[in-house]
Write a structure and sequence with these properties.
The protein is of the alpha/beta class and about 240 residues long. Helix 4 (about 140-145) links the parallel strand 5 and strand 6 (about 150-155). Helices cover about 20% and strands about 15% of the residues. The radius of gyration is 19 Å and the shape is elongated. The chain has two domains: about 1-60 and about 65-95, no CATH class; about 100-243, Leucine-rich repeat, LRR (right-handed beta-alpha superhelix). InterPro entries: LRR_dom_sf.
Length: about 240
């Protein structure tokens, strides 16, 4: 049993949960006993809401992938950040152990409370299938810069995105930047990319971007650059990011 007498269908000892296309799931209360989870993957659960969410679910999480679940990812992380700040339910001084986060909600994720929570451990952040975001506000840019452990940043099939964050050059720990399936991006950030970057993978070659990247390459000769046609089906292998 979970909170308010909710019957929890999974054993409390469960370490990994992967749920896809389950329209019957409507409340996070169903998962409220899963405080041992290290991996949580929820996709295409359109009716699932944050109602009944237990912030203790996040205590041991190392990987989280949530997309096509409306604003669920941001709602959950906001709840965790809120309880952490008030030292309610979560241990005093709690910070997330999350290392890998894959979501489809750029606007919901890039807010200061969530990024502060994720800063100590998050090394891989992927935005996938965000079709509504076109650009980054100054507030979102500043929030992204709070992710001081970030090494891998991926934009995958963000079809509305027209530009990258202008403050990317301030991410001093960033090693890999991958941009796939985002054909509207026509320029690099005006202040370039961080000197720590070692790998850049982009969509089709575009003359404007090519020229900017050549300038970046002169200041960062160790940078490896590759391009993938937008028609290419790319499977992003994240296994190397766990090494």
């Amino acid at each position: 049993m979970g909170e308010s007498g909710t019957i929890c269908p999974f054993p409390a000892s469960l370490k990994k949960l992967d749920v896809e296309g389950e329209a019957s799931m409507k409340s996070m209360a169903l998962l409220s006993n899963l405080t041992s989870l290290t991996t949580l993957r929820l996709s295409n659960c359109w009716n699932l809401t944050v109602d009944g969410f237990n912030p203790l679910i996040a205590v041991n999480l190392i990987e989280m992938r949530v997309y096509n679940c409306n604003t669920l990812a941001a709602d959950m992380l906001s709840e965790v950040a809120s309880h952490s700040q008030r030292a309610k339910l979560l241990p005093a001084g709690y910070f997330s152990r999350l290392e890998v986060l894959i979501v489809d909600d750029i606007c919901g994720l890039l807010v200061a409370p969530i990024c502060n929570l994720l800063a100590p451990a998050l090394h891989t952040l992927e935005f996938s299938f965000d079709e509504s975001t076109e650009s980054f506000t100054e507030e979102q840019d500043r929030a992204l810069q709070l992710l001081t452990s970030l090494q891998n940043l991926i934009f995958y099939a963000c079809e509305g995105l027209q530009s990258l964050p202008q403050g990317l050059h301030r991410l001093s720990s960033l090693k890999e930047l991958l941009v796939f399936g985002s054909p509207k991006i026509r320029s690099m950030p005006k202040d370039g990319l961080p000197v720590s970057l070692r790998k850049l993978q982009m969509n089709d070659r575009i003359a404007e971007i090519d020229k900017q990247i050549e300038t970046i390459k002169r200041t960062n000769p160790d940078l490896s650059i590759s391009y993938y046609p937008s028609s290419t089906s790319c499977e992003i292998d994240l296994s190397a990011f766990f090494a």
